[in-house]
Design brief:
Elements (H helix, E strand, L loop, with lengths): L1 H15 L12 E3 L12 E3 L10 E5 L10 E5 L6 H7 L2 H8 L2 E6 L21 H17 L6 E6 L1 H12 L6 E5 L17 H4 L7 H9 L11 E7 L8 H14 L7 E3 L5 E6 L8 E6 L11 H9 L15 E9 L3 E10 L5 E2 L2 E5 L5 E6 L1 E4 L4 E6 L5 E2 L4 E9 L10 E3 L2 E2 L1 E2 L1
Parallel strand pairs: 1-2, 4-5, 4-6, 6-7, 7-8, 8-11, 12-23
Antiparallel strand pairs: 2-3, 3-5, 9-10, 10-11, 12-13, 13-20, 14-19, 15-18, 15-21, 16-20, 17-18, 21-22
Helix pairs in contact: 1-2, 7-8
Length: about 425
């Protein structure tokens, strides 16, 4: 099956030679053991960047016009490829010249040239293997360039698309969004025998409920209740390497992770043969966006698609503000208590200037309280640090608008309301 994947990707490798930018001529500039900034407008290898358990190589492209506190796009290559191949075969470097962000190209050194998306180590935060090395590359880049840690993004093709899913599952606190071209859901490729290939997943026969997929992604970082990344998913209906059912399974996973409905809010045709669905929002930066390409095989990536990725990320000049989260929020809470129980009423107001598309309200219950039921949201866990996730009908909150929710709980004497709240990881004003 690995040979089949290699064969399927050979046309993409050949295509990269046809449109390699002039700056890619020759070998990448080396910057061995250098602690400071790399040369501008040249693909540069960085060594000694930090913990790197699987011996990845790191390549960086920094434009001459890099912005203050720049965004970082992690561009992940396909099987048989490399960081320089991804640089040559996509236009993220020229878009970086235009918009001032930094592009980071991880590169595999194992013989298959495929990223590890299957081992138990790869599928948990800080577990080891490739995700840890990529996180070290991001940390090096943010330190060196004072990059904006709220604007770290991942995109990839094939094996790189699978790694994009893995990175967003392992490090939801690091990535603002991802874009996966011909990939599979987080955890779909999991194996326990050391094999890199999962035939059931590649063949499209691994199906789960949205919650089961969501739990797999959430299980990579147990206890995390903060904001989750947005996801853009691309797949061809005739993909014969990572078959088309994986498209729908990814939609299930990331809509559940984001707490939005499986029913599209909008459906359109941005280009002939393309069907685009958006979930949890209607704009360019919906929580989940999925693009199905009719009659297209595994090698679907083409020039122009990177610009659409940047629009989804919010990194192009036509996109809205870079942060997907609201600028401010306010929560009021009141309690009606009796001897051993209470009901709490909570009102969440978006006091920012952009709409909230999919929300998770975090708070800590006073000691001795346990949620027994609720309305307007799903509550988990039932005690301690609780997250209320929006219902299908109230996931969008316009600027200045409010949503009211509530819950029932038992108590052992302390019937107070929670004192502090966070909306998608952002602290809210109280009262």
């Amino acid at each position: 099956m690995l040979l089949a994947l290699v064969a399927a990707l050979l046309p993409l490798l050949a295509a990269t030679a046809l449109h390699a930018p002039a700056a890619a001529a020759g070998e990448p500039a080396r910057d061995a053991d250098r602690a400071g900034a790399v040369p501008a407008a040249a693909l540069t290898e960085v060594t000694n960047f930090g913990t790197n358990p699987s011996n990845l190589r790191m390549y960086l492209y920094v434009p001459e016009s890099v912005t203050p506190k720049p965004a970082v796009v992690v561009a992940v290559h396909w099987c048989t490829g490399s960081g320089p191949d991804m640089y040559n075969g996509t236009e993220y470097d020229t878009l970086a010249d235009r918009y001032g962000f930094i592009v980071l190209y991880p590169s595999v050194t194992r013989s298959s040239k495929c990223f590890d998306v299957s081992s138990p180590q790869a599928l948990r935060r800080g577990g080891g293997s490739d995700p840890v090395g990529i996180k070290s590359m991001i940390d090096w880049t943010t330190r060196t360039y004072n990059a904006d840690t709220g604007r770290i993004f991942a995109t990839g093709i094939s094996s790189g698309a699978m790694m994009t899913n893995v990175l967003l599952g392992d490090y939801p606190d690091v990535f603002a969004a991802g874009a996966a071209f011909s990939g599979v859901p987080f955890g779909c490729f999991a194996t326990t025998d050391g094999s890199e290939w999962n035939s059931a997943c590649s063949g499209g026969s691994v199906t789960r409920t949205p919650k089961e997929w969501g739990d797999l992604a959430r299980g990579a970082y147990p206890g995390y209740t903060g904001a989750r990344p947005r996801m853009q998913i691309w797949h061809g209906t005739q993909d014969d390497v990572l078959r088309y059912p994986n498209f729908g399974e990814q939609i299930k996973q990331w809509t559940d992770v984001r707490g939005v409905s499986q029913t599209p809010t909008t459906t359109d045709t941005p280009q002939s043969g393309w069907t685009r669905t958006r979930y949890g929002g209607t704009g360019d930066r919906a929580p989940v966006e999925a693009v199905s390409l009719q009659g297209v095989g595994h090698n679907l990536y083409a020039q122009g698609m990177a610009s659409r990725v940047l629009t989804f990320f919010g990194l192009d000049s036509s996109g809205p503000a870079p942060q997907p989260q609201p600028g401010a929020c306010r929560v009021t809470a009141s309690v009606n208590a009796w001897s051993t129980g209470l009901t709490a009423s909570v009102t969440l107001t978006n006091t920012g200037t952009t709409a909230v598309d999919g929300w998770k309200l975090g708070f800590t219950l006073p000691s001795g309280q346990t949620v027994t039921g609720g309305w307007g949201a799903a509550y988990a866990p039932s005690s301690g640090s609780v997250t209320a996730t929006n219902a299908a009908y109230n996931g969008t909150i316009a600027p200045g608008a409010s949503v009211s929710i509530g819950y029932q709980a038992t108590h052992s004497g302390n019937s107070a309301a929670p004192a502090a709240f966070t909306l998608n990881g952002t602290a809210c004003a109280a009262g």
